[in-house]
Amino acid sequence: MIDHKSTQRQVDIKIKKQEERWWDRLTLQEKKPLFLGPDFDRWLDESDAEMELQTKEEKINKISVESRIRKDPYVGLKRGYLFVYNLVQFLGFSWIFVNMTVRLFILGQDSFYDTFHTMADMMYFCQMMAVFEVINPLLGLVKTGFVPAMIQVSGRNVILFVIFGILEEMQNKPVVFFVFYLWSTIEIFRYPFYMLACIGTDWELLTWLRYSLWIPLYPLGVIAEAVALVQSLPIFDETRLFSLPLPAVLGHSLSFSYILQLYLVIMFLGLFFNFRHLSKQRRRRYRSRKRKIH
């Protein structure tokens, strides 16, 4: 069967094969006429045809599998909730970071001593919101592990609400500045990354910052938290705040500082656990990106 169409520039001829087989050449004679040329947009050799067939089969299989999987009717609502949550946290930590940076440039070291009184309200809000990061994995809204989220959120809340929030003697110390600044620096890159992930967008620079900045900042943040905790120990010993009553034979009470010393050890164990978890995430992320490139 032959179909042809003539134009001012050329004559297009479509020839349908009687038998499904590969042709060695277009004409009976070995040398192709100069005026005759194949349409390379439609040209296939055997390897191309195999790849095309394999792609079609994969598409069919994918459609078949997807048709059997029940689609989540609330997926849009879940993504909307996660996007708004990450946006709110990004705005909150950005406010803290920008204000602390401006105050540092204007006031210099004097800004170290009133960080808590100027930033505490917003930090309280952000850290109370962070409790949702423990709840979200339990509800299956995110793939992040429950344990790493629990370690980070509970660790920060102990420092913020117990060490800084209750002890007035700690609120004017420079360590508050370093803890708040390190926390906010990490989060102003983490939350936008999750926001873009909610809408299926990947910004290469932001991805690199999210998976690289934590390497120096996360251990520095834990060290700053540890310094704050150590500085609070003599205050708890002196005030006997949160001390546990004991039988008269054993003594009057057990200082809360002993519990904090135990927590200090747990905190560095948590650093090791979370550091290993984040390292695996980083390797897995860049391994998958390399596969996509290849």
TrEMBL record:
InterPro entries: Tyr_Pase-like_PTPLA. Its main location: endoplasmic reticulum. Keywords: Endoplasmic reticulum, Fatty acid biosynthesis, Fatty acid metabolism, Lipid biosynthesis, Lipid metabolism, Lyase, Membrane, Transmembrane, Transmembrane helix. It comes from the Eukaryota. It is a multi-pass membrane protein. It catalyses: a very-long-chain (3R)-3-hydroxyacyl-CoA = a very-long-chain (2E)-enoyl-CoA + H2O; (3R)-hydroxyhexadecanoyl-CoA = (2E)-hexadecenoyl-CoA + H2O. Pfam families: PTPLA. GO terms for cellular component: endoplasmic reticulum membrane. GO terms for molecular function: very-long-chain (3R)-3-hydroxyacyl-CoA dehydratase activity. Pathway: Lipid metabolism; fatty acid biosynthesis. The chain crosses the membrane at residues 80-102, 122-142, 149-167, 179-199, 211-236, 256-275. It is found in: Endoplasmic reticulum membrane; Membrane. GO terms for biological process: fatty acid elongation; sphingolipid biosynthetic process; very long-chain fatty acid biosynthetic process. Its EC number is 4.2.1.134. Catalyzes the third of the four reactions of the long-chain fatty acids elongation cycle. This endoplasmic reticulum-bound enzymatic process, allows the addition of two carbons to the chain of long- and very long-chain fatty acids/VLCFAs per cycle. This enzyme catalyzes the dehydration of the 3-hydroxyacyl-CoA intermediate into trans-2,3-enoyl-CoA, within each cycle of fatty acid elongation. Thereby, it participates to the production of VLCFAs of different chain lengths that are involved in multiple biological processes as precursors of membrane lipids and lipid mediators. Belongs to the very long-chain fatty acids dehydratase HACD family. This is Very-long-chain (3R)-3-hydroxyacyl-CoA dehydratase. It comes from Solea senegalensis.
